[in-house]
């Protein structure tokens, strides 16, 4: 299907915010580093080439007409800027090779990163400027930040952090505090460029830690970061937490966020009922078994099911994959997600959507 949108993403977002008519639901397939496949470059070029990062994002927008572009290449950019060692495969996403410190005795030597000088943070900031200038007023752009708690894991190592949560909680709090200072400095730089920060907190998942641990070690620092961003220019951030999150939805919504992005193992319907009256819901088509491994028809069915589950969420709904798409996700599957949202249109007619689903589920 050709791009039949009658509005730009920026126009659509503004109309939704003002309660006006729109052409369709917003949709963000969350292509992530798969934009390299659209643009025709190696992922390794994202590590040190700001212009390529921005142009690849824009190429994906031109191809699919998605509603969001984000500067974000991997989870380890902030820990690297604080001293961690990262490996850079030729054509795959960067990975953590060695944490910034080897033991708690070194915590005091850690320093907050300077986003204008340290690691690849300046590369990302420059990419934001390029993207802002390319996107103009057509589509709003964001910049991903790994949250303070998750970044703390990469400063001393995942297994060591999990051990310290029980053996030396004060050490974890010190790591989160220094991590938070890096996140705040980066968020300020992002806001000064004119983009909206988004927060990814994968280690805050209830698949990884208990709600009790989340409330003690992650939530206070997430709150401080979100409050800092809101106080700086009024921006309400979108938060993504991987895995199971139902037991902490209300905790996160209480922070006054702009949106909650949930993974495919969580229930859109339950999330809508729990916090849909307080924040926008984003999600949650399975990025692996549906978007990457499924057929276009699988994508269509799951996208329709997601729309039925959440189209009437009081504060709004964005059709989205449950997490970043695998790099080799078939482009025809991404196109099918967009095509399906366009076919449904707006306002959503649930009876018509159910009828389409019935035909495909026979």
TrEMBL record:
InterPro entries: Methanogen_methyltrans (IPR052024), UROD/MetE-like_sf (IPR038071), Uroporphyrinogen_deCOase (IPR000257)
Descriptive protein name: Uroporphyrinogen decarboxylase
One of the GO biological process terms: porphyrin-containing compound biosynthetic process
Pfam families: URO-D
Domain Uroporphyrinogen decarboxylase (URO-D): 8-343
GO molecular function (one): uroporphyrinogen decarboxylase activity
SUPFAM superfamilies: UROD/MetE-like (SSF51726)
